[in-house]
Design a protein that fits this description.
4 domains, alpha/beta, Aconitase, domain 3, 8-stranded mixed sheet, 5-stranded parallel sheet, 19 helices, Glucose Oxidase, domain 1, 34% helix
Amino acid sequence: MSRNEIVGRCLVPGHASGDVVFTDVPLSFWMGIDTESGAIIDRHHPLCGTVVTGKIFVLPGARGSCSGSCGLLELIHNDKAPAALVFAEDEAILTMGAMIGGEIFGKTIPIAAVDSESFARLAEQKSLTVDNGRVAVGRVESKGEIPTPTRRVNLTASDQAMLEGAEGKARQVAMRVIARFAEVQGVTELIDVGQAHIDCCFYTGPAGLGFAEQLNAWGGKVKVPATTNATSVDTLLWRRGGVEASFGEISQRVIAAYTGIGVRPSFTCAPYLLESAPGFGQQIAWGESNAVAYANSVLGARTMKYPDYLDILVALTGRAPLMASHTAAGRQATVRIDVPDLGITDDSFHPLLGYHVGLIAGSDIPVVTGLADAPPSRDDLKAFSAAFATTAGAPMFHIAGVTPEAETVEQALGDKIPERHVVLTRADLLQSWRELNTATDPAVELVSLGNPHFSRDELGRAAALCSGKTKAAGVDLVITCGRDIYREADQAGLVDELKRFGANILNDTCWCMIFEPMLPRETRRLMTNSAKFAHYGPGITRREMHFASLEACIAAACSGRNPGDPPDWLRG
């Protein structure tokens, strides 16, 4: 093989040449890239502002949101996608977006994966050609050879019947994509799953809407119980909530498409708070990155980090590739991260820690030590999961002495010796605190809570902090939660207490989907207790962000200001 040619793995076939954009930092294609311009908008990424349209985009892989597949599909539909993608791993999320583009719309881009040594070499190149898995320096002609998968997936008689169309067009297409996806990932077996959580139930653009309505037009119906993720609007109140009529109506079309397929309209990004939450060891197919991390890590259920679109295809068939965290071997930790004793902390500690652990872990599953003596609560683990899933590509984590598959460090590691052993310092966490606090002025015009959706206990704590206090006239306080949790909180009197303070509580939608005019144009600085939203917020809202504890957020809602100083436990 010539030094100017690399024979990689063909994830999506095709031929493209172009100038190179290279990064060694993973990127989320949802909330990390503008699907209408092709520009990177993740303010924490070194290539922020770079336009990747028409380029050969070389990056280690995706991180963060399961909706990266939606982002790539919309880029392809809008003719703003990279000419090709080259990864340092058999990436799944973006691969699915390109597969759906080809399957449903006849329009896709080539994707290849290369080994780590070859990936490093590509940093030096100015132009590349991607040709059915082959990566060549410069611009060269296609050899026209599409490699066949090295492993074929084993299909049962029932699988084969679906593939041949015996159960309708929707299940036929779903099984075809699932089998193809399994083969390019090197998987030979499919398994039954007991439930699914569908992440792409919000308006991502015309391509995502077209996909959902096509499945519905084909008569698709889910085979296993499935729930909806948060959607684009409060489905009950959007007409009087400042939402443009055209956007509200098109969001309703997305909802109608998925509920028409048989997906339960739960509209929450925290499905682990529902009565239908899975049990330990149950095989499931969940989208939504924070929910995947929580289900795997805290509940001990088994799901891979399902790309949007693959989740609904699995729900249609009840069948999933036996890969990654569906297997015992795929759940073992390979990185050990020791956390120092920081004394008494506040509730910003766990989201901050999850954010930093995700940065360290990348695509590797970590086991975190040092938390067992002061075990995190369920809500602490929820905040940790969301932050971890924002910066990591891995589907789960372990916390020694806390999570169910890590009674000890040794249990989490299995028969492995950690490939890396990292000892965190207070200074490390302080650095991440500063990265999340992008506001340059102490003023706060809006306090945003509920990313992920607030639990009943979180609503209770917020109500207690608001009791007897008055919200500042120039500050909005907006909380998002699922409709099931809202009903519980309303019956307990918490909703009335929060509304007396002046809070606005939204159902069904969440902060990753709230834009103008729901977000007032005059609002320049937001404050949140969510490390996930503090990370994505600057890019998706074009606003500055304050990040701190829930108590500090309520205090800012009363004063309209946040001093911005790190808490005492972080300064030492």
